[in-house]
Amino acid sequence: MADVPLLTALHGAADRADAVTVDGRTCSYEDLLGAAGAVARRVAGAEAFAVRATASLETVAAVVGGLLAGVPVVPLAPDAGPAENEHILRDSGAQVVPVDFAERADFPASAHIAAPNEEAAQGRTDGTPYRDAALVLYTSGTTGPPKGVLISRAAIAADLDALAQAWQWTADDTLVHGLPLFHVHGLVLGVLGALRTGSRLVHTGRPSPQAYAAAGGSLYFGVPTVWHRVARDEVAARALSGARLLVSGSAPLPAPVFRDLRALTGHEPVERYGMTETLITVSARAAGERRPGAVGSALPGIATRIADPVDGVGELQVQGPTLFGGYLGRPEATAASYTADGWFRTGDIASVEPDGTHRIVGRASTDLIKSGGYRIGAGEVENALLGHPAVREAAVVGAPHPDLGQEIVAYVVADGVTAAELTDFVAAQLSVHKRPRTVRFLAELPRNAMGKPQKRLLPPV
């Protein structure tokens, strides 16, 4: 395969004055390339550079500028504390580069991709610590400080092309979202995806139901928290009925939210699955069936398997051209993330139905509960709890139990219902052995910037 530009729309598509809008500010491709060129000139020759990834045209210009110069970009969460920022800057060796969007410069585009190869996709390349990275995205695991994930141009291009095919995403679309620009969802899919397909991009700044409703898009991205809020605002939800596709990701979409969106907007949302290390590997299709609690089938070029399944459930492992190039400066951690025969260990527990549809049970470390000899997925119990009209939020974990091994503990945000009523409700919906033995009521669940519940921050039982 010959080298081709990564950001196809910027290097050949017809320009338009409203190509990119972020938090109320709009620019053309020409404006964006000029601002990105100024960034590229400033960072040319650096090993990497960091940018405070606010929801702004400056962040978009910084990332595009890094791609033009062939210099890896390290996005920093704008709300990160000093300790986290210090760790990322020290670990990456990057310096923060300020961006002035009004500054303009020409810069020859080097944002090309090489033909994908298995060695690069598996993170086994030699050379500089950055290898061929375009982005270094920091992600936290269950232990230790955040690790830098090396994402190549080849991986980004392969993933965006597969998603464009799966979602029928074209230059005729207007993509709307309000997601953070320091994660895969908001930055890779939500910005670079638009600049590759040529679709208009409207970033709403904050992902409020009112902002989504006013944007008039054809393609919408959101996390479950966003879609839950949209579904609770009937006027905003009905305003999305003219869209072509609603996409949910970054965490499981509760089945009640799926059903509410279907009733209010007329759309069944597309769910997809991925990780920072793998980008998006599994998705429902725009032209296919969408089922509550299911994330669809493997994208073209992606292979998946369930390791050591019990009753069809086990760890999901993947291979394909979208995988990361390794953890920055951590060869041991990179090697440990693969099996001996070259499959990436996602750490997520899943099942695959006969037609290839994947269902994610949860994280092996927190969401697979072994109680009384049963293997119980926390997500199944959470969906059952969310089916109760009094429950607004739910998170389920396993806690040590002297007889059962683990007992099911539910943390809920609810009004006008007792713990016993919720326990009985789950037992009637699922099985008796899947009922919570302890129910704790909270004012809200702890969540990260993507709206994903942070179970490690839940109060002890």
Question: Can you characterise this structure?
Answer:
This protein has 461 residues and is α/β, with parallel strands linked by helices. The chain folds into two domains: 4-360, Rossmann fold (3-Layer(aba) Sandwich); 366-457, ANL, C-terminal domain (GMP Synthetase, Chain A, domain 3). The protein has 13 helices and 25 strands. It has helices spanning 29-43, 57-69, 82-92, 118-121, 153-167, 184-197, 209-215, 224-232, 234-239, 255-265, 331-336, 378-386, 419-429; strands at 4-5, 20-22, 25-27, 49-52, 73-76, 95-96, 112-113, 133-139, 147-152, 174-177, 200-203, 219-222, 245-248, 270-275, 279-283, 297-298, 303-310, 313-319, 344-352, 358-363, 368-371, 374-377, 391-401, 405-414, 438-441. The strands form seven sheets. Strands 3-2-11-10-12-13-14-15-16 form a nine-stranded mixed β-sheet. Strands 17-18-19-20 form a four-stranded antiparallel β-sheet. Strands 5-4-6 form a three-stranded parallel β-sheet, sandwiched between helices. Strand 14 and strand 15 (279-283) form a beta hairpin. Helix 1 (29-43) packs across helix 2 (57-69). The termini are far apart. 50% of the residues are buried. Residues 380-452 form the AMP-binding enzyme C-terminal domain. Belongs to the ATP-dependent AMP-binding enzyme family. Pfam families: AMP-binding (PF00501), AMP-binding_C (PF13193). Keywords: Ligase. This is Fatty acid CoA ligase FadD36.
